[in-house]
Write a structure and sequence with these properties.
The chain has 99 residues and is mainly alpha-helical. The chain has helices spanning 26-43, 79-98. The chain starts with 25 loop residues before the first helix and ends with a helix. Bound molecules: zinc ion. Residues 60, 62-63, 65, 75, 77-78, 81 line the site of zinc ion.
């Protein structure tokens, strides 16, 4: 049997606005968002709160995949990243040995 003594309560009503960007540069897109907010606030009363948000993602510079390092720190995304990691680890070991 399913519990049926339930009702829907609507909460947290907001406006979500996604600009139609002309430029792929995300720094320019963030500036454009703030500019749009300034324009909205100049023309519309009753805005209690606003937020410009975006998602940041850590990606490998070599393949643009998720590095997904194993327990040693070795990236799993591509062989080039693993070569880079091994080379940097070797440099670090040599520096530590030199000190
Ligand atoms: Zn990679």
């Amino acid at each position: 049997m399913e519990y049926t003594n339930i009702k829907k309560i609507t909460k947290n009503v907001v406006i979500i606005l996604e600009p139609d960007f002309w430029d792929d540069d995300t720094d320019k897109q963030i500036k454009e968002c703030h500019s749009i907010i300034r324009d909205i606030r100049r023309h519309v009363d009753g805005i209690k709160y606003y937020e410009v948000s975006w998602d940041d993602e850590i990606v490998c510079c070599l393949c643009l995949g998720t590095p997904d390092p194993d327990e040693t720190g070795m990236p799993q995304c591509c062989l080039e990243a693993q070569d880079f990691f091994l080379s940097e680890s070797k440099k670090q070991d040599e520096e530590e040995a030199g000190n």
